[in-house]
């Protein structure tokens, strides 16, 4: 989102995301969710299993549709009704029975027990007083064997000065993952345009972690 998001009205925020959905609806799924799907597929080989994922901040649904195509049931959550509408319209009719869309704020959403929580580029849009409790609820939703796939902003990101957002030192995220095996971890910094063409300094944390104990 633009760097002055603290100044934006709810209508301007909805308009921003509506434009984002138009641009991203046909984009491929992120590597994080594809890595998580592959991890489960390797485990389930020869023993078909009905897996359930919660996709937080689903947007136009690039990740949710990848999960549906892989045979998952998906609960897709976003605060913007346009996100759920775009995702549903872009989902092939035969996959829609496996999709549940929910308009809800990530600050308060109760994450049901599931095999995978996916959160791509959405949790940074929570202020710190909401980010950390939501991150805790994400981790707590996962049984042993469950995974989290996430794309977060690090503290060197251009959005770090925005008080409505949370850009975390990567080590704080690593430290929060006790009881998890970190299967994928990448921290990168680069200047590049956002999906809507605004130049942005990205400090991106990408991770896939599998719960190995209830600690
Ligand atoms: C950058 S987009 C990412 C969308 C999608 N995950 C993707 O990777 O294409 C961020 C999404 O998070 C949603 N979002 C931001 N803050 C939210 C909140 N507090 N509660 C629910 N959704 C939120 C936005 O509506 C938007 O759809």
Outline the secondary-structure elements.
Layout: H1 10-24, H2 31-44, E1 52-56, H3 62-69, E2 73-78, H4 81-90, E3 99-103, E4 116-120, H5 128-140, E5 147-153, H6 170-176, E6 180-193, E7 199-211
Parallel strand pairs: 1-2, 1-4, 2-3, 4-5
Antiparallel strand pairs: 5-7, 6-7
This protein binds S-adenosylmethionine (SAM).
Mean pLDDT, all residues: 95
Fraction of residues in β-strands: 25-35%
Broad structural category: alpha/beta
Task: Provide the CATH architecture.
Answer: 3-Layer(aba) Sandwich
Cα-based radius of gyration, to the nearest Å: 16 Å
Description:
- This protein is an alpha/beta fold and 215 residues long.
- 31% of the residues lie in helices and 26% in strands.
- Strands 3-2-1-4-5-7-6 form a 7-stranded mixed β-sheet, covered by helices on one side.
- It is globular.
- The structure holds S-adenosylmethionine.
- The site of S-adenosylmethionine has 19 residues, from helix 1.
- S-adenosylmethionine binds at residues 17, 20, 24, 57-59, 62, 78-80, 83, 105-107, 120-122, 125-126.
Could you provide a short overview of the structure?
The chain is 31% helix and 26% strand. It is an alpha/beta fold.
Considering the chains and any ligands shown, give keywords for the structure:
215 residues; alpha/beta; Rossmann fold; 26% strand; globular; binds S-adenosylmethionine
